[in-house]
Amino acid sequence: MSDQSLDRDLQDFLEIRQPGADYEELKRDDFAIQLGVDLENYKKFPRVDDAVTYPKVRYDTRADIDVEHSQDLSDYSGPFQQDLRFSDFSREALVRMLGMSHEYYVLLVEAWAGEIAARQGEEKMQEIQTAVWTNGVGPHLDRITQEWGALPDVDVMPELGSGVVTFSLFAPDARYEELDKEQLVNLALGSHELLLLVIECWAAEIVVRDGLDEMFDIQWVFWSEKVLPEVRNLKGRWMNITTNDVAAFMKDIQIDATSFPGKAFDLIFEMPEEDVGIMTFNKCCAPDQWEALGRPDILEKNCHSTCPASLIETAKMYNPNMKVDILAIPPRVSDGDVCCKWKLSMRDESDPEFVPIELGPTHRSAAS
Asked: What is the DSSP letter of 132?
């Protein structure tokens, strides 16, 4: 592929993969439609019942700002909150959430850079990293700053060509302590958009250069073995989630920086029983993108190559007896249906996969 063709294909593909892209206005991209990918040799995870579909019935409350009725939670060590709003946290807790989001962002960027360097060498990684920031991220920094109220001069953009670039508009800053809740919630949501933009740009570069299968393989490695242990740890350190039950898992995902509400995701969380959690994605960027491109077949591989590994492994880290059942996963029958739906529960001693083990809290709060 010529450099000119690579640049043109990449720009078209990046446009489609931006958080908040208007999929109704975009024309189907020929490059994306013709992407070659192995749609046979990958692990598919079964649904509980293929005949059942789930319409969207509720919406995500986490981005709703209601300062008047805020609970002023100092962390998330207390009970699971089904209709959690980020504004339910105290200002101090929101500042910590920003620190947690930034640490998560750095972890993911370093993981992408490290994995590509290991596979293709440092020089190629630097070439790809330069393209990530020049073609993908850089053009959106001013917009994100204005939209989410990022403070000036919280970080310095390094010169491209050496090291791993973890520049962020939402890096930790002492000035956050003076902001009100609405400003802090908006910064958290902006940090999520920037995180998604950066990792989407890394992924898009790999897709254009090396194909979808390589990108899916890298994602599988991340979400099944490399990134998750530290992700679970940082939730404990920053927000004091220390138990090993289903409620802890649900709280983990509610404050996970990759799944904040916004242009890419709308999630609802329910616990109909003490040890049963239901997590529903009403909106997800993957179905939006691949359905708009007319490639539900790629969407199916995308979802099976990423989400089950992440959720099943996270559940095991909280408790080896926590199990994950898939109630819905793409392809979906109608765009009025949820994107995916997951049930978490605990095995008992009658289950042949039950693991006799005694667990206790493993983390301390970052505030302690």
From this structure: I
